[in-house]
Design goal:
The chain has about 260 residues and is of the alpha+beta class. The chain is built from nine helices and seven strands. Helix 3 packs across helix 5. The termini are far apart.
Length: about 260
């Protein structure tokens, strides 16, 4: 039909799949159709002239290089290879605001002041400086597993932050600017700080966060205010509910109680 077939994470595909895909691409390029056997019969499928196959995969360098499946020269020559770097910060900010509106609605994000300016500040004034610290080796950890702060980190933060805001509203609690920034700081520390093993690195992360969002000067928020504080534990249905200083944590329980 002339559609586009997108195959994601090709570097994670099995050798058997890649071999089959290579054969199909070879047949299409050579004769405009491919054939396969079904129930002892040969089926021929003609390729539409506008049909495209797009494959995506992680780069051959960096944190993902160890998990890549090397491709044969014969397979690579079937493709027009394009390399893409990071999204520009302004575009990443647009993507995040669009995701937030899709998940919780435009009225919700407007109510909480999650403007495009907010997301641009998040990406430009916080995420990018932290990412550069990692790339330059200043966030080196134990030197065994290099940190990589990328779009996954940003989106993990966004999901957690929006969930927190919605949880507060669901309980009928007022979310003022200070509470909103407390939740913001907590989830930034949880999303980014989880990758950091040295206390000095976490202190540096806090400093970046504090400057970008004026946590101390404008909202009188200190690093100790966002630390996890366990206040209670209770079983509620099939969940273990952990009472916490800012947001309750719900952990699913298995049938055996684990």
């Amino acid at each position: 039909n002339g559609w586009v077939l997108v195959l994601e994470e090709l570097d994670q595909a099995s050798g058997e799949f890649l071999k089959s895909l290579n054969e199909v691409l070879h047949q299409i390029r050579k004769q405009g159709y491919f054939e396969f056997e079904v129930g002892g019969k040969t089926v021929r499928v003609k390729a539409h002239p506008h049909f495209w196959v797009v494959g995506t995969e992680n780069g051959s360098e960096g944190n993902y290089s160890m998990s890549r499946t090397p491709h044969s020269p014969d397979f690579v020559k079937r493709w027009l290879v394009r390399y893409y770097s990071r999204f520009p910060p302004a575009e990443q900010a647009e993507i995040m605001r669009g995701l937030a509106a899709r998940w919780y609605g435009a009225e919700f994000i407007d109510r909480h002041g999650l403007t495009l300016d907010f997301f641009e500040k998040l990406v430009t004034d916080f995420h990018e400086p932290v990412r550069r610290l990692s790339v330059s080796g200043h966030f080196g950890g134990d030197m065994q597993e290099p940190y990589e702060f990328n779009r996954r980190t940003l989106h993990r933060f966004l999901k957690r932050f929006l969930w927190d805001l919605n949880a507060y509203e669901s309980k009928g609690e007022t979310v003022d600017d200070k509470t909103r920034h407390l939740l913001l700081a907590r989830e930034l520390m949880e999303s980014y700080g989880a990758e950091l093993r040295r206390d000095g690195e976490k202190a540096s992360l806090w400093d970046k966060m504090n400057v970008a969002f004026e946590l101390g000067s404008k909202y009188n928020i200190g690093r100790g205010d966002i630390e996890l504080k366990i206040l209670s534990l209770r079983r509620q249905g099939g969940k273990l509910v952990v009472g916490e200083g800012l947001v309750p944590i719900e952990i699913p329980l298995r049938a055996n109680g684990g």
